[in-house]
Amino acid sequence: MRIVLATRNAGKIAELRRILSGFDVVGLEEFPAIGEVAETGVTFEENALLKAHAVAKGSGLPAVADDSGLCVDVLNGMPGVFSARWAGSHGDDRANLDLLLAQISDVPAGKLSAHFACAAALALPSGEHRVVEGTLPGRLVTTPRGSNGFGYDPIFVPDGDERTTAEMPPEEKDAISHRGRAFRGLAPIVREVLGS
Fold first, then answer.
1. Is 7 flagged in the annotation as binding?
2. Were 153 and a residue from 92, 116, 118, 165 both cysteine, which residue would form a disulfide, CB within 3.0 to 4.6 Å?
3. Where does Mg(2+) bind (predicted)?
């Protein structure tokens, strides 16, 4: 059975293909008429569902989408759903990181708890849907370290580790990541709903 992942990111598509072996997972490059879906929700779940439903409707196939971000406790869970556009423009990792570091610059190290969160949604053309969430708890450091990963990875240290996620090899980070946890949690639901 064919499933559309609501992304043009080749890395995400490859990851979901590994998790959903037995399904024909394709990305949005197969459906050029489907444009970018505005993430107007105020939760990760809402944004994942917006994207999944739009892609299921536009493709006529089951669709999987996710939304994720960094939630900093001392900032009341922000940047949260605004993680990718925290500094104003979408996807400017350096500006987002610099702004967050400025906002936490006077916070004691022991108060920098945070977690990465991800909601992964499955939507069917019929309108039926399911959502699974994954989290990765940890803390922030104020000096970026590492060159792997992207976004806030250089300042995020998972619980039980001393390395930032940007200092971890990609396969090690994928094994514990919030997105990997959400997708792996969604996999049995996809198999149950779609019968494979």
1. yes
2. 165
3. 67
Rounded to whole angstroms, the Cα distance separating 189 from 174 reads: 20
Is 179 marked as binding a ligand? yes
Q: What is the pLDDT of residues 28-74, one digit of tens each?
A: 999 999 988 989 999 999 999 999 999 999 999 999 999 999 999 99
* pLDDT of the residue at 157: 98
Which are the catalytic amino acids? 67
Could you tell me the pTM of the whole model?
0.92
Structure-block tokens of residue 187: 């996999």
Which residue positions in the chain have pLDDT lower than 50? none
> With helix as H, strand as E and coil as C, how does the chain read?
CEEEECCCCHHHHHHHHHHCCCCEEECHHHCCCCCCCCCCCCCHHHHHHHHHHHHHHHHCCCEEEEEEEEEEHHHCCEEHHHHHHCCCCCCCHHHHHHHHHHHCCCCCHHHCEEEEEEEEEEECCCCCEEEEEEEEEEEECCCCCCCCCCCCHHHEEECCCCCCHHHCCHHHHHHHCHHHHHHHHHHHHHHHHHCC
151: annotated binding-site residue?
yes
